[in-house]
Predict the 3D structure of the following.
Amino acid sequence: MKRILIVGSLGQLGSEIAISLRDIYGKEQVVLTDIRDDVNLALIESGPFYKLDCTDGPALASIVQRHAIDTIYHLAAILSATAEKNPQRAWHINMNGLLTTLEVAREYRCAVFTPSSIGAFGPSTPKLFTPQDTIQRPTSIYGVTKVAGELLCDYYYHKYDVDTRGVRFPGIISHMTKPGGGTTDYAVEIYYDALERHHYDCPLAPDTYLDMMYMPDAVKAAIQIMEADPAKLRHRNAFNVAAMSFCPEEQAAYIRTHIPDFTIGYQIDPLKQAIANSWPDSLEDYAARVEWGWKPTYDLASMTTDMLAKLRERMHGG
Ligand code: AKB
């Protein structure tokens, strides 16, 4: 039975991976940590939790030792738009946080999952059906930390035999915990505003295509890759995973099939637009499909139906 630790467990991705891992392995087997301890009290109180700065190696090591952890999900990171406002802090958290986890994993022989991102690509990357192995020259600091993180994880695998694995996540859409500081956050906010105001002001231009994924698929990818047979993994850090690619105009059209009077306006955020323009429109994920059986469940239509239903339930106290 695995004994898992999540670094950054109260964020958009962490809070849902935590619930799924606790369902699968049991509450005591999945230890949660986060820099905050004042949000999502239900999750915090559902099993072992520690307040932890992800760059604090001794504190992380002592939790790993106390709970005999064998697998770490390293999810603490500053997302692209926030990172661009304070690049030095983004480097510190994204790189030193990861290095801290890798060092503890080396000492205590843990496997490590680290998410990379479509942000690991840049303007010189092929934009359509971006291949697994291709040019990676990102222009955002977030992207720089993601490429460096991929390479660092590969390095720890080759040099120290640490079982590092990762995926390049697209924008993740979910209804439990809102994302914070990403370029793709609009694709989540749009559903909240559609239900509350029947209108959304989008920070990206109507025809900005980006890869996106619904949270149940993102959680599935993170868990499935850590359970994959290592003998079949030719790539490790990190696999392209794709589910859908759309632009704000298309997403609005799907929302209108449920809320006919929904309208969208455009108030372009130059920083987010520049980042989005530097990222691919759509990824090709053949390696993930062949090497560990990746296959998404949701597309834009089924995600939109589910998102709106789940948010409606919440709004009506369900
Ligand atoms: C962001 O927009 O920064 C993230 C990502 C695509 O990595 N959601």
